[in-house]
Amino acid sequence: MPELPEVETITRRLTPYILNKSISHLSIYHPKSFIGDSDQVLGQTITDISRRSKMIRFKLSNGMNLVTHLKMTGQLIYVDDEHKVGGGHPTQDWVRNLPSTHTRLEYHFRDGSKLFFNDQRLFGWMKLMSDEEILKEWNNLGPDASSDSFEYDDFSQKLHRRAIPIKLAIMDNSIVSGVGNIYACDALNLAQISPFKTAKKLDEDEIRRLYKSIRQIIAKGIAMGGTTTDGKYVDVHGFAGGYQKEMRVYDRQGEACLHCGGEIVKSKLGGRGTYYCSVCQA
DNA sequence: AATTATGTTGCGGT
DNA sequence: AACCGCAACATAAT
Question: Of the candidates A208, A184, A181, A204, which has an alpha carbon nearest to the alpha carbon of residue A194?
Fold first, then answer.
């Protein structure tokens, strides 16, 4: 479920709580969720936390990295004795009762605080990786949609070489990384481009609009703290995001397009639900 | 009961 | 080679 804005929100909100903390124990409730020798995290301090695409990288003091991908239903929940979010207001009640049936991993820090990795569908993982392994894998990724390295010229050139529908192109992490189904649908609506249009058939003006729209929609997603439509995505304290109140077309079939008032329809593309305006994205 | 789900990978056929 | 559809991973809700 989480796309770039959700993963970025988790990364930002988690960092002040666990940076420089030492892992004293790791409980593995489901072996599929942890890849590598779990003894290598014991006693290690988290020296840095960053995001790339939809993954989070925790650097450890022994030089290894803990990398996580939440896939469809993964959550990272932080809990300590205070049970307070910044500003003094309390966390969601249910996080106090963790671990739950969906808790797969539980990290215990030396100061008594904990980090829970919950994942209903077991697609997600946390994996120990060396710097070399990360470099090798991440080199295959296109630039993050939220970063300055996402540049118009490169984006345009890549699109000109592809004969796939534009929606699939912008969800392809080797072209631009971090854009999933929700933000792809919304960015295409903002740019007023059909999700089915072949990538190489977009003219310069369309690519320009799309490039700006992706940047704008992803930035808004981050600013709103991500999207929660079914309760699966929550932040590190268990709270919903806010972008669902701003959604342009996703999950709004039958409603009016914010741009032209046309009817929003739902279709299928690449096996995924695809929402678009039947008038201005025809 | 069948269909659906915000991610990714891989397979076989064209 | 590139592209497409489909299945796989596994679970729960409608």
Answer: A184
CB atoms near residue A152 (< 10 Å): 14
Q: What's the CA gap between A168 and A184, in Å, rounded?
A: 9
Reported as type and span, the H/E element at residue A191 is helix A181-191
Distance in Å, residue A23 CA to nucleotide C8 C1': 34
The whole-model pTM stands at: 0.97
Query: What is the distance in angstroms measured between the alpha-carbon CA of A170 and the sugar C1' of C6?
Result: 21
User: What interhelical angle do A204-223 and A181-191 show, nearest 10?
Assistant: 130
Chain B bases near protein Cβ (<7 Å): 4-9
Instruction: Give the span between the Cα atoms of A167 and A279, in whole angstroms.
Output: 17
* Across all strands, nucleotide nearest A231 (CA–C1'): B6
Helix (H) / strand (E) containing A214: helix A204-223
End-to-end CA distance of chain A: 27
User: Is the N-terminal amide bond of A2 cis, ω within 30° of 0?
Assistant: no
Nucleotide nearest to A184 (CA to C1'): B6
What are the start-end ranges of the H helices in A139-250?
A: 152-160, 166-170, 181-191, 204-223
Q: How confident is the model over A176-197, as pLDDT tens digits?
A: 999 999 999 999 999 999 999 9
CB-based contact A58:A14 (threshold 8 Å): no
β-pair partners for A25 = A108
